[in-house]
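Notebook, student rotation project (T.W.).
Task set for the rotation: take a protein with a known small-molecule partner, predict the structure of the complex, and write up what can be learned from the model alone. Partner molecule chosen: magnesium ion. Sequence and SMILES entered below by T.W., checked by me.
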Amino acid sequence: MSKPEPIAGENSLIVVPDILSGSDSFLRAKILIVAQERSTVQLLERILQRVRIQNFRSTTDSPAALSLFREFWPDLVLIDWMMADVNGRPMVEQLRAMIPDGAFVPIVVLLWDATSEARQLALASGANELISKPIDACEVVLRIANMARVRLAYLRLEEQKRALQGTVLQRTLDLNRALEALRASEESVAQSERLSAVGTMVSGIAHDFNNALTLIMGSGEILLTDAEHEHLTKENTIQMLKDILTAARGAAELVSDLRKFSKAGDTADAQQPVDLNSLVKRAIALSKTKWDSQAFGEGSQIRVAVDLQEIPVIQGNAVRLRDAITNLIFNAVDAMPNGGTLTLRTRTKDQVILVEVADTGIGMTEEVRRSCFDPFFTTKGQKGTGLGLAMVYGIVRHHSGTIDIATEPGKGTTFILKLPIPPAA
Ligand SMILES: Nc1ncnc2c1ncn2[C@@H]1O[C@H](COP(=O)(O)OP(=O)(O)O)[C@@H](O)[C@H]1O
Ligand SMILES: [Mg+2]
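Predicted structure of the complex:
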């Protein structure tokens, strides 16, 4: 191979400063020059200095180029293809191999042999840009400027990516923290909703309890008077004692239901086999006082229809699931101020267990339907807490279930709980 020809166009450097703005950030790029000929290195250094690029290193020793690369970590490599009388292919390939995957460090190759074969070989080895002889100083600067600007854009992108990753990480942490807070508040919502449900039930139960006491005391007084006046007949006495016992047993049942309900919080995480059908029956029995007294008080009638099909036993928390169903019943009754039909249905479909609580009440507008699970959302003013459905949602989700709502204003609403069938079932 012949020696490189003298460089043409050195005078054209005069125009370079006019083309490049003095504040162009590429002027700060770190450039590594690798060439075998001292004269080539000097020429390139002169060109860079002329446009005030100061941050460069050079070497004429190709093995040293690799360690210099590692130490200097340049933004751009300017490399003479003609190294030690062989083409620069191994050099370019070795440099390429040192650049981590995904990183962008442009390699600009000076090509003395500008045949298309040589150009293809250089590009295939990993060159990003070619400069061929005779060297035009202005072209050298412009091509370096182009590549360096791409490199700087890449660095800015990397910086933004890192910042974004930081933001995403921070957001994820924030979200996790919010999620934890939400879980904690769900627990306390469940607790306070249970308390308010207990409150509702207590007034219903007090009413029933009072009825039982009235009956017991009335019968007792009659028995006492009859006994004092020696009017006791065996028939009368037996009937009255039976009435007293029936009323007392009813009252005892109420007390035991109330106790179970208020103890629900103690067993918040208990997992046990749950028979949803008997749970639905218990929920109806527990809420009976509410819809009975409401219907009685307002002269309207609530009919209860039950359609419980055979469904598998699930693992879960019976008390909390019953709370959920009780809450849906309360809401259904509230939605039927003029009476109607409350329907409870259980069945399986497509590998899920469906528990439906349906009413023929006022239904929901789209807006209410969208917000009804939000804690504290209520359309009942002072009478509502807005916590019932939030609690139901939490409980159902805790059992890996979902809730659908079918509703139409004026027609009624159906809440459909979907619970997964356990694998063993
Ligand atoms: N069965 C239903 N029919 C019509 N609207 C309902 C029904 N269930 C719930 N809603 C609506 O969702 C709201 C939120 O219910 P909930 O969370 O139980 O709170 P609250 O019953 O205390 O208002 C209710 O105020 C009501 O507007
Ligand atoms: Mg409610």
